[in-house]
């Protein structure tokens, strides 16, 4: 239970913010698993909704798709976009487990995976207007994840090569920096029971746009699996300032159905 993680806002298996080395679904190395998710994030001045589906093949390969809808609410008027203007992005991803196992095997050997996330922002004209170089880009990830059963502790470390502004919702690259940078993602969780995990995540991000500073993001989460195929995740999230507005903090709620 919970060893395949939950789903990130970008659709890959992991935590809410960070991608982990785990493969989605409940398949063995001879089967295929599927997970679907819907996530809502309510911030001070914005609202994010994301939904998607992921397929795990033989506990080796993951393929996923997510749609993100970032509603500017009343902040859209202050930004000159109009009330409720919505940024939309499609994320198509693949992840390959190279070696190791997140649960079994030697305690010193984590599960290690590499992945790629192709992001296509559907508001190309607007993101270029605010300084983004492109409306599409690809992130590359390398992750190591291990659940130490004796201590009931899960640890993940991920390095991401990215040029995404605000996860790609404000395009890719900018007037300050154009190329990819190596960023860090990490997660630490404690398994209170087979069905309940608490923990936190951190994620650093590039600061590419001159008109608005971008900082790292972090969260504190609780993931609960009331039955084998259902996981509910709640979190307090801080993603820092967005555009020219104050730091954005709020509540995160996600539902995942897994087979």
Give a description of the structure.
With 259 residues, the protein is mainly β. The protein is built from two helices and 14 strands, in the order E-E-E-E-E-H-E-E-H-E-E-E-E-E-E-E. It has helices at 75-78, 124-129; strands at 6-7, 13-14, 32-42, 47-57, 61-71, 86-99, 111-121, 136-148, 153-162, 181-193, 196-203, 217-227, 230-241, 247-258. A twelve-stranded antiparallel beta barrel has the order 3-4-5-6-7-8-9-10-11-12-13-14. Strand 8 (136-148) and strand 9 (153-162) form a beta hairpin. It is globular and about 55 Å long. The chain starts with 5 loop residues before the first strand and ends with a strand.
Give the key terms:
mainly beta, twelve-stranded antiparallel beta barrel, two-stranded antiparallel ribbon, 2 helices, 14 strands
Précis, in short:
Helix content is 4%, strand content 54%. It is mainly β and 259 residues long.
Strand content: over 45%
- Average pLDDT confidence is 95
Number of helices: 2
Lateral strand order in the biggest sheet: 3-4-5-6-7-8-9-10-11-12-13-14
The ordered H/E elements are EEEEEHEEHEEEEEEE
Helix residue percentage? under 10%
Major β-sheet annotation: 12 strands, antiparallel, barrel
What is the CA–CA distance across the termini? 12 Å
Question: Any idea what the radius of gyration is?
Answer: 18 Å
Structural class: mainly beta
Low-confidence stretches: none
The total count of strands amounts to: 14
Shape: globular
């Amino acid at each position: 239970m919970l060893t395949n993680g939950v789903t990130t806002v970008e659709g890959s298996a992991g935590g809410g913010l960070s991608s982990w080395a785990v493969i989605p679904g409940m398949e063995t190395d001879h089967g295929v698993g599927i997970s679907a998710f819907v996530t809502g994030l309510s911030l001070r001045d914005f609202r994010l909704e994301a939904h998607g589906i992921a397929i795990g093949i033989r506990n080796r390969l993951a393929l996923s798709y997510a749609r993100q809808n970032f509603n500017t609410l009343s902040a859209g008027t202050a930004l000159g976009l109009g009330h409720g203007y919505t940024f939309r992005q499609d994320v198509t991803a693949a992840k390959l487990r190279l070696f190791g196992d997140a649960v079994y095997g030697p305690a010193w050997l984590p599960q290690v995976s590499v992945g790629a996330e192709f992001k296509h922002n559907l508001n190309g004209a607007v993101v270029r207007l605010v300084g983004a170089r492109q409306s599409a880009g690809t992130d590359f990830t390398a992750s190591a994840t291990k659940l130490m059963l004796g201590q009931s502790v899960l640890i993940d470390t991920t390095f991401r090569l990215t040029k995404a502004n605000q996860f790609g919702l404000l395009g890719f690259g900018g007037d300050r920096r154009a190329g990819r940078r190596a960023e860090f993602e990490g997660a630490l969780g404690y398994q209170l029971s087979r069905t309940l995990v608490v923990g936190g995540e951190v994620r650093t991000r590039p600061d590419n746009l001159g008109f608005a500073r971008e900082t790292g993001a972090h969260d504190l989460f609780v993931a609960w699996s009331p039955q084998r195929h259902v996981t509910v995740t709640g979190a307090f999230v801080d993603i820092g300032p967005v555009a020219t507005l104050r730091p954005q903090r709020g509540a995160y709620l996600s539902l995942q159905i897994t087979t």
